[in-house]
Each structure stands twice: as structure tokens, then as C-alpha cells.
Amino acid sequence: MKLYYYRGDKPNFGDDLNPWMWPKLLPGVWDDNPNEMFLGIGSIIFDSHPKQANKIVFGAGYGGYTPLPVIDDKWKFYFVRGLQTARECKLDPSMALGDSAILLRSCITERPAKVHKVSFMPHFESTYDGNWRLACQLAGVHYIDPTATVDHTLQDILSSELLITEAMHGAIVADALRVPFVAVEPIQQRHHMKWFDWASALDLDLRPQPLAASSMVEALMKKAGPNEALVVRIRANRRFLRLVPKRFAQGAAESLLKLSRIEPQLSGDANIERAHSRMLEKVELLKADLRAAAPLVRSAG
Predict the structure, then answer these.
(1) pLDDT tens across 9-30, in order?
(2) Which of 23, 28, 88, 103 has the lowest tally of Cβ within 10 angstroms?
(3) DSSP state, 38?
(4) Whose CA is closest to 56, among 280, 274, 282, 275?
(5) What's the rounded Cα separation, in Å, for the pair 53 and 33?
(6) How far apart are CA 40 and CA 44, in angstroms?
């Protein structure tokens, strides 16, 4: 079975959780067979997957980045990220268990001491669109690089008392591992919907907060809103990143300090424990199906 996950030009913590976590939970089942695809962590329910390949969906979500795929007998759903994904894929709402990164609760055995009072984790695209490392320095906030290794990023999250995060999987992992977080509205509007998809499965009343731009690029992207063509042109013009960087970084630092003083969020203990337990049941069901080489059906129930 081939482990499919999104690979961009730069590493990204959320996507890179896949090769870190799944071999721990499902050892010995992975190969490069393109006819058996496993879709775990990420907004990777696409219309571009090979039509003849069998697709096993194990907590993935639909992010609206592409048209919906045609759901036929080549798709088998064990569970999906949230209620919006279930609705788009015409699945029963009971299939919306949550983002499968919640299964990290079964992989983390040691907790480091808390050494960072407040940390900030940008979206991985913001590491080259913004000046967040400088903004964090000015604010006295620990900077978490979403393009660092999974081990390093997990250590940083777990050693933080509070995580402010523009990266959705920063929030998902913090919530799963019980680190209070403040969700930040992503700079790019196209990333907004998937946050609420994940939160819906945990009955979490997500309260994303606005954050000041840390660069001219981000300020212009905020004004561009959903105009994707304009966003692409702005990002291509790198000279914007060099315009008054200290001024934008200072404004972003003040914004981070303001967010560090608001009430953080966590899903309910019972909700996260229930989601984790039901996902572990699905892991055992998948193992049984793989042993029996069960034929693909529309839904695993």
C-alpha cells in the first residue's frame, strides 16, 4: 500500500507527519504500489488521483483546492476529517471522526518540560512570505519553524505552555496533546475552510483570531483576499518582502503579544478521548481488512 501525502517545494510539518506516524501505527504494510493508495493526514481528497487505483481514506479531508473526485467503488472510507468533508463526499456524518493526526496520542510516550511560555507557528508558506522569525524575536515569543523536522517541531509544541498558530496542524497536534492554543486566521483565505472541518468533528467552537501582516507581501495578500491570480503575482514579486521589513515585523510582534493574552482553546477532554478511541478501532479494522484482503466497498461504517 502506498502512503500518499502532499509534497511541496518546502517541508511542511502537517504533511510530513504522515511518514513519521503511520509506520509506527501500521508497520510492515507500506510499499510503492500505485494501485493501493492510503490517504491519511491532509486535505488530499483530490480529483486527480489515478482513477483505477484503490483509495483508502483514513482521516483525510476535502480542502476545496480542486473539484471533488467522483466517488466510486475505488474509494473506501474508514473516516474523514470533519462534517464538511463528510457532507461533500455524501457520507454519513458518523464518518467524521476528526483529523487522523489525533492518533499522535498513541505515538508520544514522553513529555518534555515546559520551557517556552508562548510560541508561534506560522503556516509553512508564511515562512517565505513573511518576517515571522524577526517578529517573534521582537515580541519575545518562541518561533516554531513548520519546515523543521517532525521530531523537532513536536518537541517545540510539547515544551510550550501556549501555542499561537497559523498552521492548522499546529492547532490539531496541540489540541491532541493538550497544549492550549490560539488559532490564527490564515493569511491566505483559501486555507480557512479546512480549520472548521476539523473542529466540527470535536464539537469545538473555533475562534480564529486576526493577526497583523509581518511583511508587505502578506499585507498585499490580505487585501487580495480570494483573488488567487493576484496572490500568485504578489508572491512572485519578492521585492515586496524587502520593503520596510522592520516596521511590519514590529506590528506583527505587537499583534502576537495581544494574542498571547487572550483565552486559549482546547476541545473537551471527553471529545478528544472519544475521537482517539474510535480512530484506534478503525486502525484495528483496517488491519483486519488488510489481513483478509477485503474488497473495497463504499464505506466501512
Answers:
(1) 889 999 999 999 999 999 999 9
(2) 28
(3) E
(4) 282
(5) 9
(6) 8
